[in-house]
Amino acid sequence: MSESNGGVDDTARARDRATVAAQAAEAGAAVAHESFRRNIPVEVKGGKTDVVTQADRDAQRAVIDVIHETYPDDPIVGEEDDERKTVPPEGPAWIIDPIDGTNNYVRELRVFATAVAAVIDGEPVGSAVVLPALGDTYLAGPDGVTRNGDSITVSDRDDPQTCTVCPTIWWDFDEREQYAAATREIVQRFGDMRRFGCAQAVLSMVAAGGLDGVITNVQANPWDSVAGVHLIREAGGTVTDIDGNPWRYDSTGLVASNGVVHDEVLAATQAIDAGNGQ
Predict the structure, then answer these.
(1) Residue 7: pLDDT band by 50, 70, 90 thresholds?
(2) In the predicted structure, residue 203 carries a pLDDT above the cut 80
(3) Is 239:256 a contact under the CB 8 Å cutoff?
(4) 145 in the same domain as 240
(5) How many domains does the chain have?
(6) Mind giving me the DSSP string for the chain?
(7) The domain that contains 104 carries what CATH number?
(8) Contact by Cβ (8 Å): 52, 214
(9) How many CB atoms lie within 10 A of CB 175?
(10) Do 212 and 139 sit in the same domain of this protein?
(11) Residues 133-139: contacts with CB within 8 Å, 24+ apart?
(12) Phi and psi for 47 in degrees, rounded to 5?
């Protein structure tokens, strides 16, 4: 799997990295699942809802160990501990979230995920999102996008009144007007709304067609977003920033959809700030 061999083409290199992303995510998810519903102690990192457990750290170490077995010199962008927090614009890197949805995890709710994305020059070439308590593994790479080994695609719903859309990423207590505006725009424009408390899970659900759109007007952390965004794009969907430009790891806003109703999903996202007087 070394990239030092000039005879290996870009597709093969991407396939190698996608394979390692899958292996790393599965290893981290296994560690997280082992401690799930085991009355694990909970720590607070920042605000009252910004929590972490030893399982987060242990799962992150398991993910990194798998990556470094094959790519020992690659930088890691990760949520916990001392891993770097910004994506290098050039060269290979890995973006990981050992437990996305830690608030669900500590409440013994099954919607949490381990997410790993392999990127080169900031662009994902392979990603994996594993939801161990639900038994779902989403993978994307040069050979397509799958859930539990079966090919998936975004939905083909074209009537917003039949669509289900999810607000995601956290609006803190001083931003609840924006949270309220996001939910208002969804319930007024679309058939229904869901919220799961795990960004990588809902992005995966868009890729598989269970959800038709995901919106936020804030900047998403790369570990909460890049792996799932890659799934959606490989499954035929559209992901932009709040201005409708192609989404990047450093974009403001994250607007994801099946592509067919993207204009309406984008309009709902843009109305969050407008409805809040911004």
Answers:
(1) very low
(2) yes
(3) yes
(4) no
(5) 2
(6) --S--TTS-HHHHHHHHHHHHHHHHHHHHHHHHHHTTS----EE-SSTT-EE-HHHHHHHHHHHHHHHHH-TT--EEESSTTSB-S--SSSEEEEEEEEETHHHHHTT-S--EEEEEEEETTEEEEEEEEETTTTEEEEEETTEEEETTEE--------GGG-EEEE-S---GGGHHHHHHHHHHHHHHSSEE---S-HHHHHHHHHHTS-SEEEESSPPPGGGTHHHHHHHHHTT-EEE-TTSSBP-TT-SSEEEE-STTHHHHHHHHHHHHHHTT-
(7) 3.30.540.10
(8) no
(9) 14
(10) no
(11) 133/33, 133/36, 134/110, 136/204, 137/22, 137/25, 137/26, 138/204, 138/207, 138/208, 138/231, 139/18, 139/21, 139/22
(12) -75, 180
Q: What is the pLDDT of residues 43-76, one digit of tens each?
A: 998 778 889 999 999 999 999 999 999 999 999 9
Burial environment of residue 142 by CB neighbours within 10 A (0 to 12, 13 to 18, 19 or more):
middle
Length of the chain: 278
Which amino acid appears at position 138 of this protein? Y
Domain range spanning residue 55? 10-151
Within 8 A by CB and 6+ apart from 6, the residues are none
- 4 found inside a domain: no
Residue 79, φ and ψ in degrees, nearest 5: -75, -40
User: 0.90 cut: is pTM over it?
Assistant: yes
Q: Is residue 1 part of a domain?
A: no
